Amino acid sequence: MSSKYEYRESENLTTWTTNMIYVYLFISFISIISNFLEYDFLSKLDSGVYHDHSKMMADAYLSDNRQNVIGIIYSIIFITSGFLILRWIHRANNNIRAVGAENLKFTPGWSIGYYFIPFLSLWKPYQAMKEIWKASTNPKKWENESTPGILPLWWTFWIISNIGFSISLRLSEDNNSIEYLMGMNVFTQVLLGFDILCSFLLIKIIKQIHYNQKNNFKLISSEDCETNSKNKNFGDASIAFEKRETTYQDDKNRLIEKPENIIKPSNEDLSENWEVLIEYCPMMSEYHQRLSQLSRGLADKYMAVACKKKYLDKDGRLMKRILSLYLEKHYGKSEDIQNFALNLIRDERYDALEYLKQHINIVGDQVSPREIIEKIEDKFFNLIGAIKRIMAYNDSFYSRILNENNQTILYLFISKQLSSVGYDVVEKGRQVVITGEKNRYEFDHRIHFTQEIRRIAEGIAETN
């Protein structure tokens, strides 16, 4: 990860931003309805329907007041949603750097700053968002990623609606005739339609980028954990610390190396201490959640130790220590078994984890780790076996999926190869479904499907 940029959890910010855009969509629909009512009033006024002057004035005041109230609410929601969107863009740009993207042209500040610079605001913000999308999809080789059609479509609607509203505001001051007002009313409703389409597309973009960044961060966190687990400073076992019955107080110097990691003791209770810790180090909440998926007691122990030591677990060292002790207790000291268990934890394959734990408890060290792993893979991961078979008879498969940058060609190539070993690959909307003799796999998008095949192939190549 980048040392300058620290990954910041964006789940809450993404939720707030998308929810506020939904509110904005709601008020936009209300504005369209109100404009229809105003157009109806202007039509009656133009056709001379009103014979009672007092009735006409009452309807006029009602129409004006309704439009003014909705206009004020619309403006407040527009400003609030705009603020959240810009904050989200800034956070997203920061996070792509934190997960390893390099050679980026737009900094977090300029990714939102260009929205406020005349002329440059016509294309620079789009380029910044395109860069965020690509780097979120593939941080290491983001320059090779293609641009999805949703991005230029979103920006086209954005430009049309914003330039259109600017023009309508200036023209509305020049003429107040009924025919002109009716024409401007229709023009405004058309612009609101473009604005609604733009907002729907933006929600999809925000959710997809957030999803990709979260997956990339989990992947990198797991790789960091596996890399650090091989450091011999952690003990004789490659991923496990030496098991101790004493408290973690004996390891204070190892766990806490820098003075800035220590918070001054206070009289707050455990929960209050925890709130303070995650305020300064939000990633600790993610570490706690990850451990809780394995064992609630393990997560509680992590919280208790962190609060007791007033320790900011910025690099996840404390989490890795507790995790390594857990792995040693349940899966033994074998490096291969522990690395395999870490991969299962990362992939949230708790069915395979439980099966692995049972096998270790029964056979212990009497069966080779490789044999145990192969049995687990055969039972739960037939897709791995399929990729192994493909790589065995197709020497160019591995290099092809690593070097092919066109996602459509890559998807078709992998699909053809999987079909040759008995797997059906079917697209259902954006979802990709793989069906084999015993297993069925689902992916939210082609990109996630191809990324998973790449990851499996890389793991097989490293083993070989």
Question: If you had to describe this structure to a student in words, what would you say it looks like?
Answer:
The structure is a single chain. With 464 residues, the protein is mostly helical. Among the domains are: 11-227, no CATH class; 381-464, no CATH class. 69% of the residues lie in helices and 3% in strands. The chain is built from 18 helices and three strands. Helix 13 packs antiparallel against helix 14 (369-380). The two termini are 27 Å apart.
Key descriptive features of the protein:
464 residues, mainly alpha, single chain, 18 helices, 3% strand, three-stranded antiparallel beta sheet
Mean pLDDT: 78
- Going across the major beta sheet, what is the strand order? 1-2-3
User: Can you count the beta strands?
Assistant: 3
* Broad shape: elongated
Strand content: under 5%
- Provide a count of the helices: 18
The H/E string reads HHHHHHHHHHHHHHHHHEEEH
C-alpha Rg (nearest Å): 29 Å
* Overall SS class: mainly alpha
Unreliable stretches? 225-268
End-to-end Cα distance, whole Å, is 27 Å
What kind of sheet is the major sheet?
3 strands, antiparallel
Helix content: 55-70%
Topology:
Blueprint: H1 11-47, H2 53-98, H3 108-113, H4 124-137, H5 150-171, H6 178-229, H7 252-255, H8 270-280, H9 283-294, H10 296-309, H11 317-331, H12 335-346, H13 350-363, H14 369-380, H15 382-393, H16 397-403, H17 407-420, E1 424-428, E2 431-435, E3 440-443, H18 446-463
Antiparallel strand pairs: 1-2, 2-3
Helix pairs in contact: 1-2, 1-6, 2-4, 2-6, 4-6, 5-6, 6-12, 8-10, 9-10, 10-11, 11-12, 13-14, 15-18, 17-18
